[in-house]
Design a protein that fits this description.
The structure holds 4 protein chains of 4 kinds. By secondary structure, chain A is mostly helical. In chain A, 65% of the residues lie in helices and 0% in strands. Chain D is of the alpha+beta class. The chains are: A mainly alpha, B mainly alpha, C mainly alpha, D alpha+beta.
Chain lengths: 546, 314, 113, 337
């Protein structure tokens, strides 16, 4: 139970458990028809890793083109398709499912002491839906690509572009339903499947974060679904909804798009924040500072996140008075994020801190997310956004939160729970090295883009004035380092599957139900239903005061 | 298989729905502790699904709200072309089907399987009537060319008959129109100049002497004209958006009903096989929620689409 | 929260005591819905104005909302459902409200200078 | 004005608003550095000082309400300062001053077309005098574009179907970047140009250097006749349509009881979608001109209707441009390159 903090020393040799979810059955069919949330998590992980690399290759094309000011490497159409496919793949087929569909799927039932998610069939179905959607996306890419930008602004997307808009939109639409089903499953599971004694305030913060993110998935995603349907109808059948030639309003499209897509950025960050909360406590061997503050701030972000979407449209011709409201709420939504950052930092205070790889990623996350979030304030600031919007400043802002934040959190979580998922430890040294490479490469790639943005370099530009070349070269150089940093984990993680040290049930001496069962866990997660008798993060009796 | 230790779940296929009737609680899935927990969970799941549906239709209502505000006269005029008789009739039919559905659930709760099946069949009949009426309404719109797209035509002043529509065109049958609409609608790449005599810029423009820099196509100035005939251009501004929304909203609603009809067939089949009893009728109950939701959407669609400005005020 | 330290499914008969609605209630609600439908149609043909502002649309929406509420409460049994179900329903309506009102803050105040 | 000399990270400050944006930016940069430094310092010192080797047993601390309040309220306070500051700046940027020279811009895939009220037109270039309020009235023929001048720190989206406005006051002569910053298709990155800020005298010379083209308003007047507007808007009593003289810029009473101000968008809508807002006392008889007039001609018509405001009670639009046009009737426009 969570009270029973083990005194097991990590050097103790462990053996793999005889039976676990991975060796329960070996046939391909047993994987493709599985209803085990852990196996579905693995399926998701393989799928989205693939899309991360597809998106990464598109990013490489973009960066290579921008090495020189002239548009020489790629045709302008090719470049436009490259960044569009980069954005689409990375956002819809990688980052949105990243932590929730893999780690969330794997861990939530275990963390609350359940045998599975509430609807295992729907869980499997959601993976299939995702794959079908992703195939549409890939098909769109292979048969010519799309060039509208990941935002699909009308009327470019509905009338003027002559690329595969409908195919891509349908792909995103389908993948969106996968996200809705995942969120639905999480919400019901967290409400109805908790083990005896597992009260709301004994839930790990990871679960709280996913609960908040699920609210967004369920309530936001349908709006983008219908929006994309309307775009496809307008494009395919010439019916008029957004068409300005019929008196339609292209800004309505933006409202409907961002109604989902702003909250979606919190789908992309909240689960990552959940990961960081777990990792920070584990590796400082200390209860989390301000449990309730962090838990409620997740929900606050999810709710307030729905009220700020038009901050993407400050100069788009919306009413100035509406802009006032949306800007104000954008500033308010920053406060719960601030609460989290400070509580994580405070958790380290008087802890017993171990510098393992997951912790390095967590440090990286805290720093880079802070920069990314604070630069979000620049954009939320009305008068300043006028100058910064549609420039590389925005590109830098969102890569800081999405790559510096969520991708790091994803890697953090993968390393942290790798022993649980596979039963083996990753090798510490190469892991630390690649964490360092990612950190350095990342900053080198995106820090210069803040400056470029303030200088006025517009985003989605295939060529640019020569005076900006130096900064762009720096950025491309950073991207190469970053690419190596992302490639390394693929190698050593695969290596560790066979050669990694056997981990044992709880290599990090963490509290939390998932660490009480064997690694890898049995198909039913627990040999007997656990009973929870204390709060999470119970790393010893409460002693100190601040 | 993930559930080795639990033989009863073995035959639950990933997609299909299993047919085994073994054991005391044949529908009790292994990962739930109790039947009650299982029922609670699927109930909540259904409700969460329904609020997802609310937001899905919400996007359409949002577009409707914006454009109704902007094009109130056109919305009023276009709305007047819908038949109140048919709309009211359909509303009553759908409310009736909600009643029969509620009674079906009630029968299931009491374990009266025969009655349950009877009410489901009644619900399906009412649903079919509704969709049939919808087909009639849609085909009327087709005939009058009040279909968004390049053959669109709507001129309330001309007594409903479009001035630009020739007699030959008037005589076109629905399949003809459909074909023309589909090929035109899909085959006409956006931006391609249309045969319309009214393609923009027809008026002579004094001072139109700008020489364009090289690299830009010269001569042509202006946006690609709206594909379609001159009737489309002359139609009352905003009316086409009304009809686009009309078809999108009622179409989405009808799609939900069609899906519902399919589900009802499946429920009937299961009921026939004796799957439901007073102890287990969750699917019936959850489907009932879905059907009532579809009814609620129509309760809003009816006044919003059929009854705009019927009294002829401003 | 301290009062509700148990998880839902531990509470005995949480939602399992199923309220079986009486057929009379269903008939009553059906009647009310029919009357509501008639009322909407009738109201649409009246020119209802107060101080120059037409009230037709609000009235149509109020009738529709009453009808929808009846369906939700009685046909969908929300009246006898758990608090969680009620919260779920309300949050759906609330979020729809966010979408509509915040979008309209833009469209309705664009003309201001 | 000072910053650009010492910090190479800024574009030129070439408009009156530029330094205000930079000041806010620097304030935010300072805050970012402060908080990032603070967080980094906390994370690093704690994790080094209390590393496991040094501090094998952690002290279990629950949390602290005063601290939670502190680190919510202080950021909130700072955020509100930024909010108010930025909002005031935004209103200054969005609301054009009354006295401004007016220039019309039409964006299309992938070029900018500029019309000066007195006649000259240019493409992908905009000549303006220094130290003058300039107001651009912009519209797109096709997709969304965005008119951006980084050195002026201004930018506004250009929409199809509706006029948007952008104003600035350039206070430094020179040539500056013009970018289309809203992604608009294949040659989005080619939709660039230059803003040429000139001494007023040079500007006058430039204005009169082109070949003959009537002023916007006089072209509009010709359209007004050729499209048959005059038949109804003759200005005489008993005409079928309202008298347009003096209409512009004033409130119009509508048939449904509302009152709207006749601005550029209203006039444009009145031409394309006359049914939308019916003037009180008139029937909905005006035909729509949708599809018959392109954006540039519409601008000429708008400019003409506008000019009637200056010349109240006159039906001739002989006086071109707006009241603030420094150069009322130039005969010549500059030919584009
Ligand atoms: C994971 C994704 C993610 C996250 C978490 C965020 C978080 C935030 N974003 Fe970002 N954003 C994007 C992804 C994300 N964003 C993307 C993808 C785009 C561009 C889309 C496109 O156009 O393609 C974008 C664009 C974008 C814009 C639009 C710019 C424009 O188009 O003109 C704005 C404007 O307000 C904005 C604001 C914010 C704010 C205020 C936050 C806040 O939530 C940040 C809160 C965090 C902090 C503030 C840091 C921690 C706080 C402290 C350390 C304490 C100190 C705090 C104070 C003093 C207040 N973002
Ligand atoms: C999850 C979201 C996500 C992630 C992870 C990334 C990752 C990266 N992005 Fe992404 N980016 C977006 C989301 C994301 N981006 C979005 C939404 C846009 C806006 C699109 C739009 O405007 O519509 C955008 C736009 C965007 C632009 C602006 C394009 C433009 O406006 O013209 C640039 C330019 O530098 C860029 C660069 C990068 C780089 C270098 C990475 C790197 O982090 C990627 C590193 C990863 C790899 C390189 C793959 C792994 C490594 C290998 C496979 C090894 C082999 C490869 C090589 C040796 C090259 N991105
Ligand atoms: Cu025009 Cu980009
Ligand atoms: Cu946002």
């Amino acid at each position: 139970m969570s009270t029973a903090v083990t005194d097991v020393v990590v050097t103790e040799t462990h053996v793999m458990p005889e039976e676990h979810y991975l060796n329960a059955d070996h046939s391909l069919k047993s994987w493709l028809l599985t209803q085990d949330h852990k196996r579905i998590a693995i399926l998701y992980m393989l799928t989205i890793t693939f899309f991360f690399f597809v998106g990464g290759i598109m990013a490489s094309l973009v960066r290579l083109e921008l090495l020189t000011p002239a548009g020489d490497l790629l045709e302008s159409d090719t470049y436009n398709k490259a960044f569009t496919m980069h954005g689409v793949m990375m956002i819809f087929f990688f980052l949105i499912p990243s932590v929730p569909a893999t780690l969330g799927n794997f861990l939530i039932p275990m963390m609350i002491g359940a045998k599975d998610l509430a609807f295992p069939k729907i869980n499997l179905l959601s993976w299939y839906i995702f794959v079908v959607g992703a195939c549409f996306g890939l098909a769109a890419m292979i048969t010519g690509g799309v060039d509208t930008g990941w935002t699909f602004y009308a009327p470019l997307s509905t009338t003027y572009s002559n690329t595969n808009v409908i195919l891509t939109a349908v792909g995103i639409l389908i993948a969106g339903f996968a996200s809705i089903f995942t969120g639905l499953n999480f919400i019901v599971t967290i409400h109805k499947m908790r083990a005896p004694g597992q009260t709301w305030f004994r839930l790990p913060l990871f679960v709280w974060a996913h609960y908040a993110a699920s609210i967004i998935m369920v309530l936001g995603t349908p709006v983008i679904a219908i929006t994309l349907i309307l775009v496809a109808l307008e494009r395919g059948f010439h019916i008029g909804i957004f068409d300005p030639r019929l008196g339609g309003d292209p800004i309505l499209f933006q409202h409907m798009f961002w109604f989902y897509s702003h909250p979606a950025v919190y789908i992309m960050i909240l689960p990552g924040m959940g990961v960081i909360s777990e990792v920070v406590t584990t590796f400082s061997h200390k209860r989390i500072f301000g449990y309730k503050a962090i838990a409620f701030s997740s929900v606050a972000i999810a709710v307030f996140g729905f009220l700020v979407w038009a901050h993407h449209m400050f100069i788009a011709g919306i009413s100035m008075y509406a802009a006032l409201i949306f800007s104000l709420i954008s500033f308010l939504v920053a406060i719960p994020s601030a609460i989290k950052v400070f509580n994580w930092s405070a958790t380290l205070y008087k802890g017993s801190v171990r510098w393992n790889t997951p912790m390095l990623y967590a440090f990286g996350f805290i720093g880079l997310f802070t920069i990314g979030g604070l630069t979000g304030l620049f954009l939320a600031a009305l008068g300043l956004d006028v100058h910064l919007t549609e420039t590389y400043f925005i590109v830098a802002h969102f890569h800081y939160v999405m790559v510096g934040g969520m991708v790091l959190a994803y890697l953090c979580g993968i390393h942290h729970w790798w022993p649980k998922m596979t039963g083996r430890l990753y090798p510490e040294l190469p892991a630390k090295l690649s964490a360092l490479l990612v950190f350095v490469g990342f900053n080198l790639t995106f820090m210069p883009q803040f400056i470029l943005g303030y200088l006025g370099m517009p985003r989605r530009y295939h060529s640019y004035p020569p005076e900006w070349q130096v900064l762009n070269v720096l950025s491309t150089a950073g991207a190469s380092i970053l690419a190596i940093g992302f490639l390394l984990p693929m190698l050593y993680l695969v290596w560790s599957l066979k050669y990694g040290q056997v981990a044992g049930p709880n290599p990090w001496e963490s509290t939390g139900l998932e660490w009480e069962t064997s690694s890898p866990p049995p198909s039913h997660n627990f040999h007997e239903t656990p009973v929870v008798t204390s709060e999470p993060y119970n790393y010893g009796e409460k002693e100190g005061e601040v | 298989m993930a559930t080795r230790t639990d033989p009863e779940v073995h035959d639950v296929g990933a997609h299909g729905h299993h047919a085994g009737d073994e054991g005391h609680h044949p529908r009790h899935l292994h990962h739930f502790d109790t039947m009650d927990q299982q029922k609670d969970a699927s109930g909540l799941g259904m409700w969460v699904f329904l609020i997802q549906e609310v937001m899905f239709f919400g996007g359409l209502f949002c577009a409707y709200l914006v454009y109704r505000n902007r094009f109130f006269p056109a919305f009023g005029a276009a709305s007047a072309t819908l038949s109140i008789e048919l709309g009211t009739f359909n509303t009553v039919v759908l409310i009736g089907s909600s009643l029969t559905m509620a009674l079906a659930v009630n029968a299931a709760q009491r374990g009266l399987v025969k009655r349950l099946m009877g009410f489901i069949i009644a619900t399906m009949i009412l649903g079919t009537v509704f969709l049939g009426v919808k087909v009639v309404e849609y085909s009327q719109k087709f005939e009058k060319r009040e279909i968004p797209g390049q053959n669109f035509c709507f001129e309330p002043q001309g007594g409903g008959r479009c001035a630009g529509v020739s007699e030959a065109q008037e005589k076109e049958t629905i399949p003809d129109l459909l074909k023309r609409y589909m090929t035109g609608g899909l085959g006409h790449p956006p931006g391609e100049p249309s045969d319309s005599a009214l393609a923009h810029g027809a008026a002579s423009i004094p001072g139109e002497t700008v020489t364009t820099p090289e690299g830009h196509s010269s001569g042509e100035e202006g946006p690609p004209p709206l594909p379609g005939g001159s009737e489309r251009q002359r139609s009352m501004p905003g009316s086409e958006i009304y009809f686009s929304l009309y078809f999108a909203m009622t179409g989405m609603h009808a799609l939900h009903m069609i899906i519902g009809m399919g589900l009802m067939l499946w429920l009937l089949y299961n009921a026939h096989k004796g799957m439901y009893s007073a102890a287990y009728y969750t699917p019936i109950e959850n489907f009932g929620l879905y059907w009532h939701f579809v009814d609620i959407v129509w309760i809003y669609l009816f006044p919003l689409l059929y009854l705009i400005n019927r009294h002829g005020g401003h | 929260m301290t009062a509700h330290q148990q998880t839902e499914h531990q509470q005995p008969h949480h939602e399992s005591v199923h309220h079986i609605g009486s057929l009379f209630t269903y008939a009553l609600i059906f009647g009310a819905l029919l009357i509501g439908t008639g009322l909407t149609v009738w109201a649409a043909f009246q020119n209802i104005e107060v101080g120059g502002i037409s009230l037709n649309a609000p009235i149509a929406l109020i009738i529709a909302t009453v009808k929808a509420t009846l369906v939700v409460l009685y046909f969908m049994h929300v009246k006898d459902s758990s608090r969680l179900t009620k919260i779920t329903v309300i949050s759906g309506v609330f979020w729809l409200g966010i979408l509509l009102t915040l979008t309209m803050t833009d469209f309705l105040t664009r003309a201001w200078h | 004005m000072m910053f650009s000399k010492y910090l190479p990270f800024f574009p030129d400050q070439a408009s009156t608003i530029a330094w205000q944006v930079d000041a806010l930016y620097l304030f935010l940069v300072a805050i970012t550095i402060f908080f990032t430094g603070l967080v980094a310092a906390m994370v690093l010192t704690f994790s080094i000082k209390y590393r496991k080797e040094k501090n094998p047993i952690a002290t279990q601390i629950e949390g602290s309400v005063p601290l939670e309040i502190m680190w919510s309220v202080i950021p909130l306070g700072i955020a509100m300062v930024i909010y108010v500051w930025a909002a005031i700046l935004y209103f200054n940027m969005e609301r054009a001053p009354k006295q401004a020279m007016e220039i019309y811009v039409v964006g299309k895939q992938w070029m900018w077309k500029v019309q000066h009220p007195s006649g000259p037109r240019e493409i992908n270039q905009l000549h303006i005098p220094v130290d003058q309020n300039v107001r651009l009235t912009m519209i797109s023929q096709d997709v969304l574009h965005s008119f951006s001048i980084p050195e002026f720190r201004v930018k506004h989206e250009v929409l199809p179907g509706r006029y948007t406005q952008l104003w600035f006051n350039a206070n430094k002569t020179g040539t500056y970047h013009l970018f289309c910053t809203q992604y608009c298709g294949t040659k989005h990155s080619g939709m660039i140009g230059e803003i040429i800020v000139m001494e007023p005298a040079m500007y006058q010379a430039w204005l009169s250097g082109g070949s003959g083209e009537g002023s916007l308003a006089s072209n509009g007047e010709k359209l007004f006749t050729s499209l048959g507007c005059v038949t109804c808007h003759s200005g005489q009593s008993g005409a079928r349509g309202p008298n347009l003289a003096g209409a512009f810029g004033n409130p119009v009473k509508l048939a449904d009881g509302r009152t709207v101000v006749a601005d550029e968008n209203y006039v444009r809508e009145s031409i394309l979608n006359p049914q939308a807002k019916i003037v009180a006392g008139f029937g909905p008889i005006m035909p729509t001109f949708t599809g018959q007039i392109n954006e540039e001609s519409l601008i000429q018509l708008v400019a003409y209707v506008k000019s009637l405001q200056a010349e109240k009670q006159t039906t001739t639009g002989a006086v071109a441009g707006s009241t603030t046009n420094p150069n009322p009737e130039p005969k010549q426009g500059k030919p584009t390159k």
